[in-house]
Amino acid sequence: MNKDHDREKDVEEKVPAVPDESGLGESGNKLMLRLLGPLADEVGQYLADGFRQWRWRRENFEKVAERCETEKVARGIEDNSLTAVSEGDAYRLTNACSFEDNEIAQELWAGLITSAVDPGKQVTMTRAFVEILRAIGPVEAGLLLVLDEYDRRPRHRAINMDFANLNQIQLSQETEKIKQEHEKWENELEFLTNRMYRHFPNDQREIAIQNLFRLRCIGMRTGRNLDQNTTRRGLPVGVRETEAAPTYEIFSKAVDYLEALTLVESGTGNYKLLSFSSQYPLLETIPELKFQLTDMGRYLISLCMTQELRRKSKSNNSE
User: Fold this and answer.
1) How many CA atoms lie within 13 A of 20 on its CB side?
2) Measured between alpha carbons, how far is 177 from 157 in angstroms, rounded to an integer?
3) Which domain, by its residues, includes 231?
4) Model's pTM, two decimal places?
5) Number of structural domains found in the chain
6) Same structural domain for residues 269 and 303?
7) Which of 115, 164, 177, 215 has the most CB atoms within 10 Å of its CB?
């Protein structure tokens, strides 16, 4: 009998095994046992002391546990296939998530915990994920969801179309369809930005941006700024750019831009003073898109994403 099955059997036979005085419900007990296994009694007693003294933490943990159960079902994960989590990671996850009372952030915790035990994810859980998520609130979460949705933008239908075999009427119809689909997606993205991020006060958004820079979850999008300062500008016709040296003015602009970009990324510069240009109109209507997810931010949001968060990202109904 494998370790995962033993742990699930422990869940079935011992619920509720966490000390009764903790006040945890069925979802909380199951999550505690799934993560901690045989240590659920010992660590559960420690957490129960905190939960008993601070009902707020108990309620938070219970809500995260319920969200984990919902996400587990949504992913189609069977209880007997859950991946084991190390004792240290299990304790850090259960302890840290109990301090979160915002529903969006709780959903992120539920996604991370579910990914930790999801056999299809094969995640190597590190304390970095826990520490980053502890530092992320609803404002940071809102911006991360917006940037993630932009990264998931639909592939342009025109890429796979054979325009050569279309007559003028068909070409006009297909062009209009593509335009409407793109406008629909842009409207949905702006709606998401308004609902999940822009409604927070400006000072909170400013702090959240700097926090995400600090956590290395976002960076600046370069747009066309670097393109405008390359040696292609001003080269005579017929001269390859590799054979021509940039002018002092072009080189100076490129260096100044890179210096400003470095200062912004380090937290000592002001991103508002960093000029940003693009031929893509959407980056003008949704200026938040001048930021982009880093590899860390992209990986973290992929672990924390739940079906409920995806639904919220797609929903056009205010909640």
Assistant:
1) 0
2) 9
3) 222-275
4) 0.74
5) 3
6) no
7) 115
